[in-house]
Give the backbone structure.
Amino acid sequence: MVNTIVAIFLILHGLVHAILALVPDPNTPGAGFATFFSRSWLFSGLGLSPSTGRPIAIILAAIAAIGFIAAGLALLGFLVPFDWWRSLAIGSAVVSLLLLVVFWNTYLIVGILIDIAILVTLIFFNWRPE
């Protein structure tokens, strides 16, 4: 039962990454297709336009989304080898943290806390499925 709950959570967290890459940012009204990952403090600090960071954000969001979904499916024993779930979850959390920090937005704090919780649970507490 716990495995199923964790797997569903990982899959949903992956889907949220995909959605946030497409949903307009409410802090940027009238900016057309400005999403949560359209502005980066890092890229603006380097003098680069927001359009430079957008493809990078899309790639990172896709890697995190696919990784979390694959980790959930592996934990369920569906389509992805079960032994991969832990590495996929940890790798996806690291990519997700990178994405959320570089494209910081106050709405993303929950995602950062979730990624940190995943890393602490899997690395420091060494959680293993039932």
